[in-house]
Design a protein that fits this description.
heterotrimer; A alpha/beta (about 290); B alpha/beta (about 475); C alpha+beta (about 350); A: about 290 residues; alpha/beta; Elongation Factor Tu (Ef-tu), domain 3; Rossmann fold; 2 domains; 7-stranded mixed beta sheet; 6-stranded antiparallel beta sheet; 8 helices; B: about 475 residues; 3 domains; 5-stranded mixed beta sheet; elongated
Chain lengths: ~290, ~475, ~350
Amino acid sequence: MAEVEAMNNPYRPHLLRIAAARDETPDVRTLTLRFVDEDDGARFPGWEPGQFGEYTVFGAGECVFALANTSNGEQGTSPVLECTYRAIGKVTAALRGLDIGHVIGFRGPYGNSFPLADWHGRDLVFLGGGIGMAALRAALLSVLEHRSDFGEVLVLNGARTVVDMVYQEEMPAWEKLEGVRVVRTVDPGGETQGWDGEVGLIPEVFERQGLSTDGRIVIACGPPIMLHFLFKSLEKLGYSPQQVITTLENKMKCGFGQCGRCNVGSFYVCRDGPVVSWEQMRALPDDF
Amino acid sequence: MSKPLHVRPAPAESARVTTASGWQPDIVAMVCRWCTYAGADLAGTSRMTYPAAVRLVRFPCTGRMNPLFIIKAFENGADGVLVSGCHPGDCHYVQGNLYARRRFAIFKALMEFVGLDSRRLHFSWVSASEGSKWVNVVEEVTATVRDVGPAKPRGERSAAAFPPEEPASRAPASTEEQETLTRRLRSVAAELLGEGEASVILGYRRGTLPGQVVPGFITSREESEELVWDSHCFNNLSVYLPRLAKQDGKVGAVVKKCDAATVVGLLQEKQLNRDELLLIGVQCAGVWEGKRLAAKCHTCDGQVSSLCDVAVTPEGTSEAAVPAASDPRDAAIAYLESLSPEVRWDYWQKEFGRCIRCYACRAACPLCYCETCISEKHRPQWISPAIDETGNTAWNIIRAFHLAGRCTGCDECARACPAEIRLDLINRKLVQVVEQRFDYRAGIDTEAAPPLTEFRDDDSEEFIL
Amino acid sequence: MQKTGWRLTKSELREWLDRLLRENRRVIAPVDRDGLRYFRPVTSADEVNLDPGKTRWSPKEFLFPRTEPLYTYDLRANGPELHDPPLPEQEQVVVGVRCCDAAGLVRLDEVFLKGKVEDPLYARRRALTTIVAFACAEVEPECFCTAVGGSPMGTEGVDLLVIPFGADWLVRPVTEKGRALAQEAWKAASREAWSLAEEQGQRVAQEIARTPVAKEWAATLEQNFDSPVWKDVAGRCLSCSICAYVCPSCSCFDVHHEGNPWGGREIRCWDACTYALFTLHASGHNPRGGSDARYRQRALHKFSYLAPGEDDVIRCVGCGRCIALCPAGIDIHDAVRRVVASSQEGDAHGRG
């Protein structure tokens, strides 16, 4: 057989094996993934918080999740990747059916990243609604790993009900760090007996914290309806559009700006996002 | 039929059963669990032997049979397909097989028209106690399929030269008549809108290209002046009715006789309420592309349909069109049916090969109103989005099948198709089958049940083993 | 206009095409078949249709196939084994490409070669392809190349330009790739012939009477994103994808995964922003739920949205096929013209 010419195929996924799986909620799971081929992993470039990947479930298709942990694997070693996803469609349902040891595909890292350097010395607020926390986790962990570079950190994790809250196992470790406060809240009616967290929607719970806006950066991610009301509330509180960061989400296929699908105006979520400031977002057409 | 999606590893030699005569066909048998499956089981426990050519797929009922399953079997390399279930009257679910019987008849006719050798697709009734009948059926089907040979890839055998089309027996309406109709239409629309009897009227207005007429949504008296009527009023405006009927106020629509027949279909299928509509029928002398009268117009008298609320006619300035005796589409169908299955298969594969999967056929069809089309469903993905012979053939067959007994022959699908695929012939073939077998014509009675939604105890089943 | 090149008779032109075929190249040209004219690989120069007018759809499928595998895989005991698709190997010459179609291929280059990632399949196919364009001596009713900066004799994306000239043909090399196909025996065309050809080109161009698309339209269109005129001009869109698929510059695609227990493949196939499913999220949310919102996206992508660092090049090449073939009779040039006009005072519906 003739030699097949080697191709730098941007669509060819890396092969990753599921090393661990943790159920965050009845329909949300966090996976820990390792490269099947350690050499392939050693060559992997690493990623910045905010970037995402295209995950392949062989036989079902591809879907997009944020890279939920910070880049690891010193030069020459194969990193561990984490992602958090909700089983909602064809591919994620198929993924849910896989177990530890199964092999999936991964393409990435794609997209832009959170401007962490701009946050040095500033007080930060991470607001996650539901699975929105997953998009913030890598940035949060990076901040916590370099604690002294940043000011106060407030994490406000909101969910519809108690069982729907993600990262419950991890939050105690976060609040052990100095200057880090974690507030958990559920929607009214979502509390259980003995719930000692807050009850209320994220915008009002945040308002109740009574924090000054001075130099504070708010990083928020959640369902569109939550963001809609949150931005109104932040505006009322006096935050300027440059102080608020979020991530956009759109249906994606290629992940790197070629297939033409994920644009909002001239802004391609996969190429120019997903991280976007409220200021940038306001300039986009109402097409998302 | 065509190359399988992914070639599975060839079975080990020992696993491949060969007979003295050599090649063994691959036949997929789709059987109902209550009767045929049990009958096959009985054949097995009774130690009856029969060719190991069939692979069984078990269904709850033949009524569950979706023609897509049969297409998938052929796509994946089956040389033949057998569908078998309970005898009529014995269905575990009472009537599943009675609906299936009608579906089978139409699907078999469709597949044969598209060029599948009729010896590859079989249906049978085998009961739970008929172990020996099962053996006979399998033997007969295996022998028949072996005669036909392995499913072959498409060849270039076609050189289909249709007989020249009968010229139209009449001419377009005169300019005066068209102008009269235009004037009257404008004044009717202006009045209906002015009196608030309709909040929007679907009609035709000038397009940007010379001679072009396009759909227009007219919402005011002033805009009514933009309505036109001539021999280029092609669009079947009823495609917009379900969408527009959702808004407040009645929707008016300018309809030709063929368009009104489609409105009947939409009413039958409860996509519209009669009291939401104001149908403005126009006496039509046919639609013309250059010197060619559209095939559907040859046998139409162009009179305003009795369904309409308002009639716009030239009155006294012309006579009604005299319909021709024969429909050019029927002559073309007869020609295709005179060809051998292989040549007919090659013809349709060539046609479907040009398909670019733009789904304009679906978009232009008023009766294709599914919120999510079968081609868009992905759990599972029944029809591959790949724009190649496999996906194209499956799409074109299913599109036609989903319109069986419903299509009113407006031919908008064929007119919209940028690849000039003769979709009108496939649709019309099924119109013929439905009329012959079930004495039913679509587009006439708003209270009638479309034929595939019902059955008769005495439906013919001469093709069933 | 550059005034060098050759003059061929019709038979010399056909002889040349036959020679290209003998040299083991794939030659793709307009062919009349089954009631329409479209590009197909030919086996003899006799099959080639050299008449004026466009093919039913553009030749982009010969650089950007309707469907192609991105990788295939086998499922082994220890997991999937992936295979890259074979890189294209055969040289191809696409002959009879109209100048609008050639410009459309340059738009595809922007997407597949100049984006974040260079597409290896497209890049290889592009390198193996020579574009022989045929200038237009006639204008079709839907043509508007001049309104978007093109021309019936334009050289954007062209390697070798062939100009109909009476009973003869003038041939002008635009790139070295094009020049490499020229024959030694060809006779040079006179300066006079080139001048006359240039005048012919101008006469043809003048037959197009469409409002030129001004540079400012890009910004105006985006500013009028919420204009009610979009619903006026596109409310009757039926959400098929004829426009995108016949278009020389549309390049959107779906990435689709198919598999069975033994293996499968990931393929790329044409897709269009006009379909409802294009932007439908798994959650059920659809940013472009109405056909008018989707049509607006297509129009703005063609005339307004620019990539960072991109020139203000309009993506539409003015071939007009979408206008001629749209079942709902929507005219994209007229649509954007009306939105722009409506932004001016006193013309709310943009009818002026």
